[in-house]
């Protein structure tokens, strides 16, 4: 055997060893615009981390939650990086289902994360258990031209009565323009995120201080009746099937006068490449009813590492890349500052380039800072969470209640029937879980 043959053989063995050592991370994420953009930009990550390949599982919000929850609870080990919300992080960290993010790198700057967002991702041990990809509250996005045509001026801090009056005046069903688009699709993170946050402004709450469900109280009836009547008069047809993405599409194509939803949507509705009404959009705080609470929520989509992964180091490298300051610069270079993932870092809101490019920046930050997860409603509550209740049982209960309220919006059941069913099913589950007798 010649020296050349030996060398060639050695090289091929080394090459095969190199191939074998490449790790593939399986990442579960939601099909929202910012995540789709992240997938398109991952060549940058691969160039910096040549030994790591990425495989994406991109799902609609309700399906993602179901799959990820099942996988982590059964220790299925299907995913190495999870996209999860502010609701799951503290609960799953307490269960030991998530690994702490201890090695995000020297230049990651954890202290730059917005305190309101970071506090929801920190365990009882003070460690970070997920890194925010984007953070959000909710606010009013509206068509300035249609508001003017209706002879109205949107205040910075509107009431629900003003919004309802404006929605009805802006509606032109003959031309498929609807005064207001709101979530109707059933899901604890879909219609119930919106309705729970809205109910806070109406003085409602999920539970009293003794964990007794409150759907039989007048505040919830006022909330649901107001919503169903408003949507009947001024909402689009088929609203009970519309979640975040469906309403985004309606607003971008000029079919909504107002949309009250996640602040993260602002960069999409104001992007002339994606929105036909980009130059006509204004912003205001989520509405109130004069009781001292606004209907704005607090949320972040975060990247976390399940305890069952065997690729924790590679997973943490990916999370550091996707949620670090350099990623914001990468998006700005490719798509402009207005399109960087919002709501996670103080430095972004101090950046003059971002302030100039994103007319919605101040309203987003004000909305995030105004949310109060520890005191979400007018009356005292035993739970933490603005648009959710931070207990493990909420995922199932919230979705079941969401189905009742979606049915009321669709006209399949009355508001009274929906509330009665919500009260019964919530009482049953809370008894089963031992909260009430």
Automatic annotation (TrEMBL):
Record GO cellular component, one term: periplasmic space
Compartments (UniProt record): Periplasm
UniProt keyword Transit peptide present: no
CDD domains: PBP2_TMBP_like
Signal peptide limits: 1-22
Family: Belongs to the bacterial solute-binding protein 1 family.
Protein name: Sugar ABC transporter substrate-binding protein
Organism expressing this protein natively: Ciceribacter sichuanensis
């Amino acid at each position: 055997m010649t020296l050349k043959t030996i060398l060639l053989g050695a090289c091929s063995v080394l090459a095969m060893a190199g191939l074998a050592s490449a790790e593939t991370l399986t990442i579960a994420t939601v099909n929202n615009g910012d995540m789709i953009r992240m997938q398109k930009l991952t060549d940058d990550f691969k160039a910096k981390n040549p030994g790591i390949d990425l495989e994406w599982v991109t799902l609609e919000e309700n399906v993602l939650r179901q799959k990820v929850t099942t996988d982590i609870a059964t220790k299925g080990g299907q995913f190495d990086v999870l996209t999860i919300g502010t609701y799951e992080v503290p609960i799953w960290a307490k269960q030991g289902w998530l690994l702490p993010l201890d090695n995000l790198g020297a230049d990651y700057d954890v202290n730059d994360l917005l305190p309101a967002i970071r506090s929801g991702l920190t365990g009882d041990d003070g460690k970070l258990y997920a890194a925010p990809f984007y953070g959000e509250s909710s606010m009013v996005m509206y068509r300035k031209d249609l508001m003017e045509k209706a002879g109205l001026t949107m205040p910075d801090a509107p009431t629900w009565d003003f919004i309802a009056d404006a929605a009805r005046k802006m509606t032109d069903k003959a031309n498929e323009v609807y005064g207001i688009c709101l979530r109707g699709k059933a899901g604890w993170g879909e219609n119930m995120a919106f309705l729970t946050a809205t109910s806070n402004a109406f003085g409602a709450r999920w539970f009293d201080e003794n964990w007794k469900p409150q759907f039989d109280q007048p505040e919830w009836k006022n909330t649901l009746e107001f919503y169903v009547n408003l949507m009947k008069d001024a909402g689009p047809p088929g609203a009970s099937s519309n979640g975040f993405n469906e309403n985004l599409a309606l607003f971008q194509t000029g079919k909504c006068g107002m949309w009250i939803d996640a602040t993260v949507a602002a960069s999409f509705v104001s992007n002339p490449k994606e929105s036909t009404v980009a130059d006509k959009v204004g912003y205001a705080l989520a509405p109130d009813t004069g009781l001292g609470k606004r209907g704005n929520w607090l949320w972040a989509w975060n990247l976390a590492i399940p305890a069952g992964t065997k690729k924790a180091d590679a997973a943490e490298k990916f999370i550091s890349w996707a949620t670090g300051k350099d990623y914001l610069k990468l998006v700005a270079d490719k798509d402009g500052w207005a399109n960087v993932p919002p709501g996670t870092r103080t430095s972004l809101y101090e950046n003059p380039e971002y302030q100039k490019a994103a007319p919605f920046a101040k309203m987003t930050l004000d909305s995030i800072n105004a949310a109060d997860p520890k005191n979400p409603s007018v009356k005292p509550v035993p739970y933490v969470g603005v648009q959710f209740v931070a207990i493990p049982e909420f995922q199932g209960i919230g979705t079941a209640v969401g189905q009742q309220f979606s049915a009321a919006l669709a006209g399949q059941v009355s508001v009274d029937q929906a509330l009665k069913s919500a009260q019964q099913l919530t009482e049953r589950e809370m008894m089963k879980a031992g909260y009430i007798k």
